Amino acid sequence: MISKLILRIILNAGAIYLANSLVDGFTFSGNFVMLFFIGGILAVFQSFIYPLLKIIAFPLVLLSFGLFGFIVNAAVLWGISYFFAELTIDGIIPLLLATIVLSAVNVLFAWL
């Protein structure tokens, strides 16, 4: 459990770094400690809170063919950028593109 959480932190930090490199309008300006801290927040959310949300919101997930999970990930990413000045998102398009990057990394993680 702990090793998967640590791996998830590392992968989320890498996904944020990758999104910073690939997505215009998505900017991470902090140091590596902050990168891993934000990656840790995402990892804790994805490991503990997101599964509960999937159970509670199962009808929405079912009706939206899984798109609701993507929306939840985008909302969490936006919330993190709201509370941490090191992460800035300049609009809805960069938010959606960064969420795609994060989701792709998480899908790859699920295959490990």
From TrEMBL:
Transmembrane segments: 5-26, 32-53, 60-85, 91-111
Organism classification: Bacteria, Candidatus Spechtiibacteriota
Keyword entries, A-Z: Membrane, Transmembrane, Transmembrane helix
Name of the protein this chain belongs to: Phage holin family protein
PANTHER family on file: SLR0284 PROTEIN (PTHR37309)
InterPro entries, alphabetized: Phage_holin_4_2 (IPR007165)
